[in-house]
Every structure is written in structure tokens, then in C-alpha cells.
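Re: the pair you flagged

First of the two:
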Amino acid sequence: MKTKKRQGFTLIEMLVVVLIIMLLAGLVFRMVGAIGKGNDIAATRATIEKVSHALEEFKAIYGKYPPVPFYLGKQQTGYEYPTLHGWGQNAEQKAKLLTEGGRGTVGEWGHSCTVYTFGLASFFMPRYNGTAERGPQAFCGVNASAHTQKGGIPQWSTWNSRVNGKLGDSDRDLNAVRRILPFLGGKLGPDNRIADTGCIQIWESPRPDPLDSSGEGLVTNLNATFRDAWRRELRYSSMPPYETYKLWSDGPDGVEGTSDDIVSGRN
């Protein structure tokens, strides 16, 4: 008696094969995800280690850790500042409006226009030259037209001293930046602007234009900060007399205070 030749897989056999493939794919995806998470944690630890070394160098120079001011109830990591390019052709007029209007003292102005945020990164880089052309002189305590020490946004004068009438970063602060930046993988150029930002990340921040009553116009500030592998800013805390600090990432889950936080500090 002749037997029939088998023509192919049965439906059950095909379902079994599909199931096995799905199980193997799921296993591979979990392994890849675990590897990716491990790489992200390692990259974040590396960034935190660099910033920690910079903090120790800052303390060696100034005798304390960066005394970062509070904004909206917490110490910020980023340094936000205006540039001539970002504030357009009427930059001086806008600066004069904010300066003479006396709106705000620590960064939040009328129309919610942030001008400065002196976060942790501002203690590791030049404040006057920074990474781009400085904003209107009127922002820094000088009337750009008369070149006199008139006006200026109070926040700038509070956190930036004038040395012998000179506007800008003091020689001591510039020399400190030259020592600190290499710990972050960066360096200062001969023009006292950052030539290599290292692990400091720079991006533009749009803000409401103070001259636009409609509230739709925008100006642009530059922002410099430190981020973890999940694109979130690192967190920093140091209280007077600034002899200790805490630097951390909220970790993969993005929630502060959980077991996967990545923390460095001096107690």
C-alpha cells in the first residue's frame, strides 16, 4: 500500500514554531533592553564623576562648593543667559525695559521672561563671554549707549562683582575656569570663551519677548547644563556654609528618592 507524501507543516506545528520564535524574540529584546539600561547607567555615572571632580577643584580654589542660588524653590543645574543674536535688533531697548522697569530680582520677569539663571554650570564657565556673544551690556549693569555704570538687571550685579571698574569675569575666575573645565572634558579658548564644552550641553531656550504685548513674540537665551543619559538635568544641592554637596540623577525611572537614583556627594 502506497503512503501519501507529506506536503507541509500542520497548523499546530506552525503555531508551535511561531510561539517559539516569539519567546526567543522576547528574550532577545529583554537582553538588549538590559544592556541598554546598563549602558545608560554607566554613561550617567561617568558624567556625574566628571562633575564631581569639577566640584572638588572648585572647592580647592574657593574653599567651598558652588553657592548656587535658589530659583522657584530649588537650586538649578543650568546656566541660562541672553545673547545679542537671541534678543534681536531691539535688544538694548528690551534690556532697558526690563532694567528700568524693575520687574523681578531673581530671573522671573514680567511676561514670564527669564533673563538669567545662575545654576551650577555658571560656576564652571565664563559668565561674561560664555559660549557666545554676550547679551546687551545693559543686562550686565552698564548702559550700552553711554558706557556708564548705570542700570543693569539686579540679578547680574548680585552674582557678579566688578573688579576695578572692569566689566566681565575677573582674572581669578577665568583662571579657575581654566583649571576646572578639563575635568569636564572641556577647555577655555584664548578669547576667554569656551572652545570645547565637554560634558556641558548647550541649547537654545525660547522666552516671551518683553516688548511684545501680545505675548506671542519670542526671544532666545542660551542654556548650558549637565544631563543624564535619559536627557534629564542632573540635580545639585549644597547649603551654607557650602562644605557638603549632593549631586544626583533620578535614574532610569525618573523619580527622585527611589532605589535606582545615581548619587554622588560629600557629607
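Second of the two:
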Amino acid sequence: MHVLMRIPPYFELEYRLPYNGIMKTTVDIPDSDLADAMRFTKAKTKREAIVTAIQEFNRRRRMAELTRHAGTCKDLMSVEELVQQRRKG
């Protein structure tokens, strides 16, 4: 025997809406920190300041991860080899 379950309409609407990659959330950010973020990023809106700060944070963390791997690949030239190669022309 098959049981057919009916999904409530409010759930159906949620699944039909396209996901645009933006998540809305509520966060308590100290006014002075947000003001500094807006000043440093030269943002015109709070959203712009927060998005810019998050992007910059992520960029710095990715760079830190990359620097941990510096010099670990034996197939790449060392700095000294690169300088010698450039001198040869």
C-alpha cells in the first residue's frame, strides 16, 4: 500500500523560489566597529562594508594558506633558479 504525503503549500513555495546565493541574517555588530569598517572600505552602505570586510578576510586567509605551502613543490623553480634564469636572458 502506497501512502501519498501532501507537502504543505508554504513548503512548496520555498522549493520553487530560486536560490540567488545571498543569505539574509541578523547580526549584532558594535557601532564603532561598523563605522570603522565603512571608513576603511569607503563603503556607502553597511552591507557593502560587511561584504567587503568578509571578502578581504577570506582573501587574507587564502593567501596565508598558500604561503604555508611555499617551497614545498619540488617541480617548481626556487627563487635563486629564477634569478639565474632572468640574468641569462
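Residues 23-88 form one domain.

-B.
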